[in-house]
Amino acid sequence: MxxxxxIIPSYxxxxxxxxxxxxxHRQQTALTYEILVVDSSPDxxxxxxxxxxxxxxxxxxxxxxxxxxxxxxxxEHAKGKLIAFLDADAVxxxxxLEKACSSLSGERRLVGxxxxxxxxxxxxxxxxYLIEFSDYLPGLVSEGRAVLSSSNLLLSRNDFMRAxxxxxxxxxxxxLLFCLQFPRQVFFNASAHIQHYHRTEWNKVKAHLRExxxxxxxxxxSYPLPGSWVRNIPMLSFLVPVYRSVLIAERIRKSSIAKKExxxxxLVVACLFxxxxxxxRGIQR
Length: 285
Known about the structure:
CATH architecture of the largest domain: Alpha-Beta Complex
Order of helices and strands: EHEEHEEHEHEEHHEHHH
Radius of gyration: 18 Å
Largest sheet: 9 strands, mixed
Number of helices: 9
Shape: globular
CATH topology of the largest domain: Spore Coat Polysaccharide Biosynthesis Protein SpsA, Chain A
CATH class of the largest domain: Alpha Beta
Mean pLDDT: 92
Low-confidence stretches: none
Distance between the termini: 45 Å
CATH superfamily of the largest domain: Spore Coat Polysaccharide Biosynthesis Protein SpsA, Chain A
Number of strands: 9
Strand content: 15-25%
Helix content: 25-40%
Structural class: alpha/beta
């Protein structure tokens, strides 16, 4: 039995999946691990991927799976005492597993790390990164959190199964709902970090932000979460970009990333309106 099961949901991952797998193999740890890739790409990927290493298992679905459903499927086949969720477009630092494990305790049942931008040479990538992961910027204080990103998340398999896994009805925002089942037991360890690849084409960034907003709105329409009051006056969704841009700017100031990123705020605000359009659509349905 492995100590840790790495679970990677995969859909048209491209070459970044190989970078992700390499980062797991480079972990500086004495812990044993297995890797479960749950892929639902229409054309799959080379079968050799599962033959390169005995630690890699590939599970394929003929239909597209949401990230939450793919993670749940992987967890059902996992043999590790711990489960480490990692996105297919994420690259873990060599000490990510050790740093994350060091934070697990009776009072800290979910641990996640900082997120760095893996392709900062793209302006579109930088803007999307700040919007999507500003709460997990490098240099922020390690502390208890209400929510972590499922892009890099560690917990015991028993806790995951007892919580019932991710809500498979949600295409996105499933990690928010999952983490809220562990009040005051979620810990952000800034010393554990991943690098995350982002979309670099503006049209894809806008589409992704609309999707993020839609599922965030749909979640708040169904559950009494922070921000759910907007469902009573949906048009107020378009005031959210101003509020969120202030939060993002404050997180940048507190982080270790270059403060020159603050000049991107006008672009951040503009792109947040695509998110707000999706949120408005989701909170009405």
